[in-house]
Amino acid sequence: MATIRDALRLGRAQLHESPSPALDARLLLEHVTAHDHAYLVAHDDEPMPDDQSAEYHRLLDRAAAHEPIPYIVGHAPFLDLDFIVSPDVLIPRPETEQLVEIAIRWARERGRVKVVDVGTGSGCIAVSLARHLPEAEVVAVDISARALAVAGENIARHVPGRVHLVQGDLLGAIAPGQDLIVANLPYIAGQEWPTLPIGVKSYEPALALFGGPDGLNLFRVMLPQAAERLNLGGLLLLEIGYQQGDAVTSLARTSFPEAKISVEADFSDLDRIVVIRP
Predict the structure, then answer these.
(1) CA-CA distance, 113 to 269, in Å (whole number)?
(2) 181 in helix, strand or coil?
(3) Distance from CA of residue 132 to its chain's centroid?
(4) In DSSP terms, which residues pair with 226 in a beta bridge?
(5) What's the CA gap between 29 and 142, in Å, rounded?
(6) Which residue of 18, 185, 258, 276 has the fewest C-beta atoms within 10 A of its own C-beta?
(7) Percent of residues, the chain, with pLDDT higher than 70
(8) Residue 168 in 3-state DSSP?
(9) Across all residues in the chain, what is the average pLDDT?
(10) Cα dihedral 201→243→184→260 (10° resolution)
(11) Which of 125, 154, 96, 147 has the alpha carbon at shortest distance from 273?
């Protein structure tokens, strides 16, 4: 009978094409056994029950076919929380954590700010802001009812009653008078689509990824909306593709001619967040 150690060795071998085969194998085994990493290390000579071994092999096959690990196990980390995810929402990414951190630093001393998260998906941004900004009024918007269902689960799990969900197209259903607007809009351009990893373009929702021929379609629509709804002295944060800094800045300048506009780099020193201060 195979041991935990054998299972991890098998997983690493079968997932060798992954950038992180050891981590992926461990996460799948943690999911199957319902034990954490410390337990697996301390008990790596224990035999695997047949039912767990069979399930582990099934999950390894899915992962080897490039299905993202978070979709297989049903959750993913973001900042200091764990979020339910499904193929109806994007998997939270570290770059987006930076957007949230900027928003928290700005809003923390401002008390009862009104916040809108546009394209909320799993709700990771809205939930994180509500958790770290206890006085904020947070609204999360998405056009997808299925995405909002996932966001609702995460809200109930982490910040019950703190985030109001709205189904709508960008800011169309949002009233003026907002202090902070954050958005991780679809920004993948047509020419980029073929170059995406198989796990992204085959499993993550195209609705949340594809932004038109140049990736900027929704920015063109939302920026004028934001200009009508954001208070003077407020803040607008936009996650962007790494080659879109100049283009999004130019679009923002049309809608916010008097604003202070800057571009923040991500952990890889690539343009990632456009910061607009009217």
Answers:
(1) 30
(2) strand
(3) 17
(4) none
(5) 33
(6) 258
(7) 100
(8) coil
(9) 95
(10) 180
(11) 96
Structural tokens at position 14: 């079968």
1-24 tens-digit pLDDT? 689 999 999 999 999 999 899 999
Tokens matching residue 159: 């910040």
Instruction: Quote the tokens at residue 253.
Output: 């300048």
Structure tokens at 196: 């995406």
What share of the chain in percent tops pLDDT 90? 91
Is residue 109's pLDDT more than 90? no
Collapsing DSSP to helix, strand or coil, 158 comes out as helix
The residue type found at 212 is G
Read off the tokens for 93: 């990414």
Cα–Cα distance between 205 and 207 in angstroms, integer? 5
Per-residue pLDDT band for 93 (boundaries 50, 70, 90) equals: very high
**The one-letter amino acid at 213:** P
* Distance from C-alpha of 137 to C-alpha of 140, rounded to nearest angstrom: 10
